[in-house]
Automatic annotation (TrEMBL):
Residues 2-114 form the Crinkler effector protein N-terminal domain. It comes from Phytophthora fragariae. It comes from the Eukaryota. Keywords: Secreted. Its main location: host cell. GO terms for cellular component: extracellular region; host cell. It is found in: Host cell; Secreted. This is Crinkler effector protein N-terminal domain-containing protein. InterPro entries: Crinkler_N.
Length: 114
């Protein structure tokens, strides 16, 4: 089980945690995100969510970075725009995204949700 912190791009608010087994798929993750955020995502089906890895230079984004601070205010920076170009595919295992990365931990943002 891993705890991933997700941020919804373009919506002000703090990142939220999602606990999920690393062996599950991106599709399973989308369903979990939708279930845990029914009010914020009430007009979006789980399979219509777009999910992106929040990695820069082989590291997770720090929650204290200027980019993440702006993201929490509902703003998009050039870095956030760049990170939302390669969508994780629904059938991909989460293990693929986590491969080669340090273990997800607190004070990091792991996923961007559009």
């Amino acid at each position: 089980m891993v705890k991933l912190f997700c941020a919804i791009v373009g919506v002000a608010g703090d990142a939220f945690p999602v606990n999920i087994d690393a062996g599950q798929s991106v599709g399973d993750l989308k369903k979990k995100i939708k279930k845990d955020n029914q009010n914020k995502l009430k007009d979006v089906d789980a399979n219509d969510l777009q999910v992106f890895a929040a990695k820069k230079g082989g590291a997770w984004l720090s929650s204290r970075s200027e980019d993440v601070k702006k993201l929490k205010n509902g703003e998009k920076t050039a870095l956030i725009e760049a990170l939302t170009t390669e969508e994780l595919q629904e059938e991909d295992p989460l293990e693929d995204m986590l491969s080669g990365m340090g273990p997800p931990s607190f004070r990091q943002t792991h996923l961007l949700v559009v």
